[in-house]
Specification:
Blueprint lengths: L4 E3 L3 E5 L5 H8 L2 H4 L10 H13 L8 E8 L5 E9 L6 E8 L8 H15 L5 E7 L3 H9 L3 E12 L2 E11 L7
Parallel strand pairs: 5-6
Antiparallel strand pairs: 1-2, 2-3, 3-4, 4-5, 6-8, 7-8
Helix pairs in contact: 1-3
Length: 183
């Protein structure tokens, strides 16, 4: 099954294309976005191209394991950031979500809205049993987003994230298909 776009009240999550390269590079080059990101800041546009190549080439795969969407404001078409869903494609029926937004759009509920859309699609469109997410323990704002969408902190993975030459702890969150949620 291919799911191209997700729609929420204020957002469109639209599959990325090569036309989004400059915006994605700008996002990945923003120091505030990189604070808890394991990718690091790309040296140049070509490095960003290498990073997103598998995200775009997988769009032709069947079955699909990876969805990467640009998050855009419905009203203006502004690029806010990225969101993604990885599917296990096995008997476990699991997925993992992530999101990253430009700092201008932090604190406005967009990450929560995009995350709810991905969780809903994971359960309703892909028939997943469980959806996970990870967050650096110091990233309290992102942890709050995961809690707001009904995810449960299930554990701590010690020193698993390589961020700027340091090993950082990660909280593991999850939500099950039959966990209560209001969306």
């Amino acid at each position: 099954m291919a799911l191209k776009n997700l729609h929420t009240e204020r957002l469109i999550l639209q599959e990325i294309s090569w036309e989004d390269l400059n915006e994605i590079h700008r996002l990945h080059s923003t120091p505030e976005v990189d604070e808890f990101n394991t990718l690091g800041i790309p040296q140049n546009l070509e490095e960003t191209r290498v990073i997103i190549t598998p995200w775009i080439t997988c769009q032709a795969s069947s079955p699909r394991k990876l969805y990467t969407w640009k998050v855009i404001l419905k009203e203006s078409g502004e690029f806010l950031g990225l969101a993604g869903l990885t599917l296990s494609q096995d008997k476990y029926h699991m997925g993992e979500i992530y999101y990253k937004l430009l700092p201008t759009y932090w604190g406005k509920g967009y990450a929560t809205e995009a995350s709810k859309a991905m969780v809903k699609a994971g359960f309703d469109e892909f028939g997943l049993h469980k959806i996970d997410a990870g967050v650096a323990t110091a990233n309290t704002k992102s942890a709050r987003v995961l809690e707001k969408i009904g995810m449960t902190r299930e554990g701590l993975r010690r020193k698993i994230l390589p961020i700027r030459g340091q090993w950082v702890d990660n909280y593991h969150y999850g939500i099950l298909e039959d966990d209560p949620r209001d969306y």
